[in-house]
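Narrative of accomplishments. A recurring question from our advisory board has been how the design workflow behaves on a single, concrete structure rather than in aggregate. To address it, we present the structure tokens for one chain from the evaluation set, followed by the sequence designed for it. No filtering or post-editing was applied between the two.
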């Protein structure tokens, strides 16, 4: 389920930031927040901040935002907002960022696509984000009316005969959110934040890792990539030269990982290699991508986020990803669906992680040609037996623990094929199961599914049938025999120019970039 991005409404700031707003000795903090306080140009909202390490405000689906607005308008119980005021006068949200942002979205008509968000993201807002924002706006407005409509009704109650909207207009000025304040210094505020957010809506392991490693190069790199170099600049202390390079690299990495077109379950060529962009797992996927591409496996010492180190990490990540799927001459043009998705179109994160390690190893050992030479059968095996990856994940109980064994799984398949060019798909799996590490794999799939005459296909079956049909029509590279993704292809001379080949249409073919520019030569 797609979630709504409200991250722009409350900006981030360091707890220790000094401001000329307010003063540290003022103890007359308000105990309730009114509608007027949540307008973007209010005194309160202008001072409102999220801690620099706060997760992105994008965990809630449309229905939850609708529910929050409804709870407020209907005077139902809404948990207190917990705030802390620093010595400079900034007001930090310790708990309640989603609640405040949801109401702020309604009041300011910005569900991730309005003027506030446009400015925050430098006008770089994905199609998916715009679509979910528009959907949320429609749901809220259909159920309660827009804030502007309710405000206008309050000035002229006869403007509508909708009883609920009239009641909202009359009551809105009296409604408020309860506030609790944290006393103490920045250290106390940070402790309060972590304790609170480890209970109710728990911080994800990925977010907690970045919080604990806030100043580390991999964490800054991951934050840059998640938003394609837009949003809050965790690298703002770097020189202008490095800031520009980091933004450029982060944008390129983001585009390769999540694509440039809208994800469409019925278009296998729209599937991005790292899964859908607006996912609760996005931050984790980006973080692990940075760590895998740079060999940060828990043994290698993490480095402080100096500008050169951050750029180094981004450069190495981009280099690995460009091999997988890009318009670079050395791109292998890996088709995401074949490698990283189930037959229902669900992203297989462990396969993605394992393949990153696999490709990184091939590059370092200069074994790319070995992969290309055996790619056709390799892809047939991993596609036909894609369910084996899930068995590996289940054995290790977590995708992060399984990606090294999955990398070994890819290695083993490639080695088996390379030793016998005439081997069949079934024989590859037989040989694989003779290896101690993979003896546990079960390849005898028993069909326990009941079938009935004159019955409709289930939704799942329909999806499988469609995707299998789409895959059967995918073009294959005439040089290596592997599947081609139309985002990463080259037009090649069948009969080479240096051998007298012409530019006639019948002397042209579409191939993988690497096959045309490197392997063929």
């Amino acid at each position: 389920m797609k979630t709504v991005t409200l991250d722009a409404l409350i900006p981030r700031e360091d707890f220790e930031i000094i401001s000329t707003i307010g003063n540290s000795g003022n103890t007359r903090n308000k105990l309730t927040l009114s509608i007027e306080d949540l307008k973007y140009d209010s005194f309160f909202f202008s001072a409102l901040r999220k801690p620099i390490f706060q997760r992105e405000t994008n965990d809630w689906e449309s229905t939850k935002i609708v529910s929050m607005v409804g709870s407020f308008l209907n005077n139902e119980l809404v948990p207190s907002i917990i705030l802390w005021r620093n010595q400079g006068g900034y007001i930090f949200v310790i708990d309640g960022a989603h609640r405040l942002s949801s109401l702020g979205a309604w009041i300011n008509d910005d569900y991730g696509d309005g003027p506030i968000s446009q400015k925050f993201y430098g006008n770089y807002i994905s199609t998916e984000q715009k679509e979910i924002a528009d959907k949320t706006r429609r749901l809220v407005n259909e159920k309660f009316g827009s804030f502007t409509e309710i405000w206008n009704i309050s000035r002229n109650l006869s403007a509508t005969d909708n009883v609920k909207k009239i009641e909202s207009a009359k009551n809105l000025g009296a409604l408020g959110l309860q506030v609790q304040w944290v006393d103490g210094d920045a250290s106390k505020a940070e402790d309060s934040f972590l304790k609170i957010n480890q209970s109710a809506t728990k911080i994800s392991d990925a977010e907690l890792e970045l919080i604990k490693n806030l100043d580390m190069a991999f964490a800054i790199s991951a934050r840059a990539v998640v938003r394609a170099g837009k949003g809050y600049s965790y690298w703002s202390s770097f020189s202008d030269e490095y800031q520009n390079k980091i933004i450029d690299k982060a944008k390129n990495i983001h585009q390769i990982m999540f694509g440039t077109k809208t994800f469409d379950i019925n278009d296998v060529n729209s599937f991005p290699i790292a899964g859908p962009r607006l996912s609760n797992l996005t931050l984790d996927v980006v973080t692990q991508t940075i760590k895998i591409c740079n060999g940060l496996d828990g043994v290698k010492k993490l480095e402080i986020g100096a500008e050169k180190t951050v750029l180094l990490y981004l450069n190495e990540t981009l280099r690995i990803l460009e091999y997988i799927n890009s318009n670079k001459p050395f791109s292998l043009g890996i088709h995401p669906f074949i490698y990283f998705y189930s037959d229902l179109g669900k992203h297989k994160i462990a396969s993605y992680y394992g393949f990153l390690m696999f490709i990184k190893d091939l590059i370092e050992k200069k074994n790319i040609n070995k992969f290309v030479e055996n790619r056709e059968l390799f892809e047939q095996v991993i596609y036909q037996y894609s369910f084996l990856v899930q068995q590996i994940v289940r054995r290790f109980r977590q995708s992060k623990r399984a990606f090294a064994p999955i990398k070994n799984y890819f290695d083993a398949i490639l080695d088996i094929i390379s030793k016998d060019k005439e081997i069949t798909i079934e024989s590859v799996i037989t040989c694989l199961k003779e290896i101690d590490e993979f003896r546990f794999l079960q390849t005898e799939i028993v069909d326990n599914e009941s079938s009935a005459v004159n019955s409709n296909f289930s939704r799942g079956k329909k999806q499988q049938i469609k995707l299998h049909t789409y895959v059967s029509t995918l073009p294959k590279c005439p040089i290596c025999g592997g599947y081609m993704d139309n985002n990463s292809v080259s037009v090649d001379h069948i009969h080479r120019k240096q051998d007298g080949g012409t530019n006639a249409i019948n002397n042209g073919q579409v191939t993988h970039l690497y096959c045309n520019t490197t392997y063929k030569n």
